[in-house]
Specification:
Elements: H1 2-18, E1 24-26, E2 36-38, H2 50-70, E3 71-73, H3 76-92, H4 96-108, H5 113-118, H6 121-132, H7 137-149, H8 154-170, H9 173-183, H10 185-191, E4 194-196, H11 197-213, H12 217-230, H13 240-243, E5 256-262, E6 301-304, E7 310-311, H14 325-339, H15 345-355, H16 362-386, E8 392-398, H17 412-431, E9 434-439, E10 443-444, H18 445-454, H19 461-484, E11 490-494, E12 507-508, E13 517-523, E14 540-543, E15 547-550, E16 556-559, H20 562-579, H21 585-594, E17 597-601, E18 604-608, H22 611-619
Parallel strand pairs: 1-3, 5-8, 5-9, 6-8, 9-11, 11-13, 13-14
Antiparallel strand pairs: 2-4, 6-7, 10-12, 15-16, 17-18
Length: 622
């Protein structure tokens, strides 16, 4: 035995000396290598061109496998995405057993319980039907899919199956072609067919949809609709009404100035309720810097253009929408519902419209919806922040967001202008006594690099990576330092809606660690984690599902997203301050977090706010 032990030890040393090198640990998305691919056909032709598609698939597959072999990637979302991309390639090549093996790996990495049940359902049924040899393929596919969904727990899987059904209803060959021609082909035209791995894997996934899903989309709609209808009475309970707190004029002490740092606010909605901050120094002439503070003020706040230049209007200008308001509201409500797995009348209408869009109409249709979304977003956020609080005084700081499918080219000059504008906005908050600021927005390093690629800017792939980092750091550092320099203000920020780790992806500001900041994820009406919410550096969760609030003009509609969960926490912070104006950000954080309760989502623990409990802790002096 002694000699055997020595031999094993010797073999272990030999393996360390001459065996495989340890994997390189990857702790940030940006640390992964970039890969480039080139095609000699139009991007949309890949949907039908077998030779070109298989060539691209082989090249992508080789790099994905090499990266998985070489790197120890410390992020489940990234790993799931890589295995999903390998799954798309396996389907394109007809390697069904390899797809199923990869699917099991993806499910093992999944933290969200609903996704463990529902990931790959359709393709599992598709493969089973293929392997059955049944000549009635559509019939076999329907039977296999019915088997898979039959015993799924409705309360867990409802949102995911509604989302899958919605995706099937909306997708069409023309829609795919329209998206590719609008958002991808212009990039390839400028780069002579060269593309990043993100674009390449997106095209492979779209090819799978065109070949395997679209011809049988009606099967998904029929099977999932029947399953949803069979459980229609099993509605989730709404926990939020019992937790809500409404202040009366007798229950507070002093007005609380709340900054709504967003896409602009229709302040006329809140003026009759006296819930709007007014800069008395600017009342006489709201188009001048009368007080010498360096800002061009509106009576109720400040505004910046897309290029971070000072403007006057506190509401983004989309022209006269009075005649078209009902249609635009239904479109944006439907779009929000589609993104958040809500099967509403509005989303049904939108799905029908989009499924019938000609390819050349896709771009103006989607950009039109996005433009109205920017117009209405800030007002909706403001309504949530102000609800049930007669002491709130909303101060608007308007940002202008890009709504185009291909955004403007990022530059260091624009990043410096943005950093300067952000610092000015926070200085304005400080000067005017803002206690809480809601930030339902953000950006990532990856989005900067993607925008550079879309505009064929930044040079070679390595030069583009470096430039993206430089641009991002200018914006990130400027915002971080400005927030850090306002320790008297609590900044409440949304986690993001990409179902990913905001720290690994370096999403700002939600990945910041500051003592005067809270990051908020989203749950639904029952307090269950939504399928879309990001996580990572996320301290509390609040309702981000079908949240009712105002849009410009005074109408009320329901939106979804962490953009809605964040102002629910802002609302709570403002009510705590209305009861005790002496609370500092540290105390506000403690009251909000200590009043919350633990919930579980798969393997992840999160904290769910309870406004009533936080107010009770304040009253008890805890």
């Amino acid at each position: 035995m002694k000699s055997l032990t020595c031999l094993l030890a010797l073999l272990a040393v030999f393996a360390l000396a001459f065996g495989d090198a340890p994997k390189v640990k990857i702790e940030k998305l940006d640390d992964l290598p970039r890969h480039l691919y080139k095609i000699d056909v139009k991007a949309a032709e890949l949907l039908d061109n077998d030779a070109a598609l298989l060539k691209l698939a082989k090249e992508v597959e080789a790099n994905l496998k090499a990266d998985l072999d070489k790197f120890d990637i410390q992020d489940k979302t990234t790993l799931k995405g890589m295995w999903a991309d390998l799954g798309s390639i396996a389907l394109i090549e007809g390697r069904y057993d390899d797809y199923l093996k990869g699917l099991e790996l993806r499910k093992s990495l999944e933290d969200k319980e609903a996704s463990r049940y529902t990931t790959g359902l359709f393709m599992r049924a598709f493969i089973a039907a293929k392997q059955s040899g049944d000549t009635d393929f559509a019939g076999a596919l329907k039977r296999e899919l019915e088997k898979l969904v039959k015993d799924l727990p409705y309360e867990v899987c409802e949102a995911n199956l509604k989302s899958a059904k919605g995706s099937a209803e909306i997708v069409s060959k023309d829609l795919l072609v329209g998206q590719i021609n609008s958002a991808i082909q212009p990039t390839l035209d400028g780069s002579k067919g060269e593309m990043s791995q993100d674009i390449a894997t997106g095209l492979l996934s779209q090819a799978v949809s065109a070949r395997n899903l679209i011809p049988y989309k009606q099967v998904i709609v029929e099977v999932y609709s029947a399953w949803i209808d069979a459980h229609a009475t099993a509605l989730k309970p709404d926990i939020w009404e019992a937790r809500d707190v409404t202040l009366t004029p007798q229950e507070g002490k002093d007005p609380v100035v709340v900054g709504v740092w967003d896409s602009g606010v229709d302040v006329e909605i809140f003026l009759p309720k006296q819930q709007v901050w007014t800069n008395s120094r600017e009342v006489a002439d709201n188009n001048k810097d009368d007080d010498g503070n360096g800002y061009i003020d509106d009576v109720h706040g400040i505004a910046y253009s897309l290029h971070s230049e000072k403007e006057i209007p506190l509401l983004y200008n989309v022209g006269d929408v009075s005649q078209d308001r009902p249609r635009l509201q239904r479109l944006i409500k439907g779009f929000s519902d589609l993104q958040s797995s809500v099967d509403s009348e509005e989303s049904q209408e939108l799905k029908v419209m989009m499924s019938k869009l000609p390819a050349d109409s896709v771009k103006p249709f989607i950009e039109g919806i996005a433009k109205y979304g920017n117009y209405s977003h800030g007002t909706h956020v403001a309504g949530i922040a102000a609800k049930g609080n007669p002491f709130v005084r909303l101060l608007t700081s308007r940002i202008t967001f890009d709504y185009h499918m291909i955004p403007e080219t990022p530059t260091k000059e624009l990043a410096r202008a943005e950093a300067k504008a952000n610092a000015e906005a926070i200085a304005y908050f400080k000067q005017n006594g803002v206690r809480v600021v809601n930030m339902s927005w953000g950006g990532s390093l990856r989005s900067v690099e993607e925008a550079l690629e879309q505009n064929n800017a930044g040079g070679s792939v390595d030069e583009r990576k470096q430039l993206a980092r430089e641009i991002f750091e200018i914006s990130k550092d400027g915002l971080f330092e400005a927030m850090k320099g306002a320790p008297e203000i609590l900044f409440v920020v949304s986690a993001g809606n990409s179902n990913s780790d905001n720290e690994f992806e370096e999403f700002m500001p939600s990945s910041f660690v500051l003592p005067n900041m809270l990051t908020v994820g989203a749950v639904d009406q029952a307090g269950d984690e939504t399928s879309f919410t990001s996580f990572g550096k996320t301290e509390v969760y609040a309702n981000g599902f079908e949240v009712l609030s105002y849009v410009p003009g005074g109408d009320q509609i329901k939106y979804n997203g962490t953009s809605m969960s964040s102002p629910n926490v802002t609302n709570l912070a403002a009510k705590l301050l209305a009861r005790n104006a002496k609370l500092n950000p540290t105390q506000l954080r403690e009251l909000i977090i200590n009043g919350s309760e633990e919930r579980k989502s798969g393997d992840r623990i999160f904290r769910l706010i309870n406004p009533r409990r936080s107010m009770e802790l304040l009253a008890a002096g805890k």
